[in-house]
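Box 3.1 A note on notation
Throughout this textbook, protein chains are presented in two layers. The first layer is the amino acid sequence; the second is a token string describing backbone geometry. Keep the layers aligned when reading.
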Amino acid sequence: MAAARLTLDMEEALRVAYERSDMSLEQFAEGLGVTPNRAIVILNSDGNIKMSTAAKALAVLGCTIELVVTDRDGNPVPSTTNRRNPR
């Protein structure tokens, strides 16, 4: 359930970022290195978009991603500085 929510939140953020941008579909597609038809599929994804694709698309739109993880009580869980050696 958490993975599905994360994906849906990412897709919504992508759609909103595109709608707020002044970028044409052709410019967006070119930035992604895909055809305009593929760019439409990315923007209209139905829960099946890769996080790496969404992150690249957001970067093309000039956005950054900030992920906040909280525990069950709503307290932020700090990220680790050494991502190559998780516990």
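The helical segments are 2-20, 25-32, 36-43, 51-60. The chain has four helices and no strands.
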